[in-house]
Amino acid sequence: MERHFEKNLEELKDGLQAMSDRVIEALESAHQCLVDLNPSLADGVFSREKEIDLDENRLEAMILDFIALHQPVAGDLRLVFSMQDAVVDLERIGDHATNIAQSAVSLSGLRTPPNLLHLPEMSLLAQQMVQDSIRSFLRRDTEMARRTIAMDDKLDHLNRDVARLIINAVKEDRELIETGLDIIRISKNYERIGDLSANIAEDTIFLVEAKIARHQDK
Fold it and tell me: Is the pTM above the cut of 0.70?
């Protein structure tokens, strides 16, 4: 029975890793679509979104089956519930990647390439946060988890700076409103990806230390 338990647990971890890999691929495609202003690259994001949704449904079913079959307690129960939270967060990150790609397609239709401001930097930072949050979770690495949470502050700062720059630009030229709104939407999506990655990192701390890190001073 113990071997069966460990086998099913490893299957859940492998499934979570595979889902996170697809989410990262979607973010990478959205990044290239944005920086290259190439709308054809958005197709890769849209197709992966469907795969990510399937991953969520599959993992949710696997988690429910695992609980029913093994009735985990204490640390194992924390792991399963934290894994369920991570699955939901990853699916939402996939949705944000799709939103970014859609706005990038809109920007690609402009006659003059827009100033992307901090967006490329935010994109790379968000990708790093997603990768590190999942690594910290699967390795139970609370130091990496805390570093990931700390990175969220930089994304928040960049998001606020983008909004400020856009507001100032629109004051100077009203024709920039639509472009500015797309850039703000993309920036906000990256900021939300940072929040969701921080959630996963906080689940790592909860899993290892049985401490709720959310809403505490970072």
Answer: yes
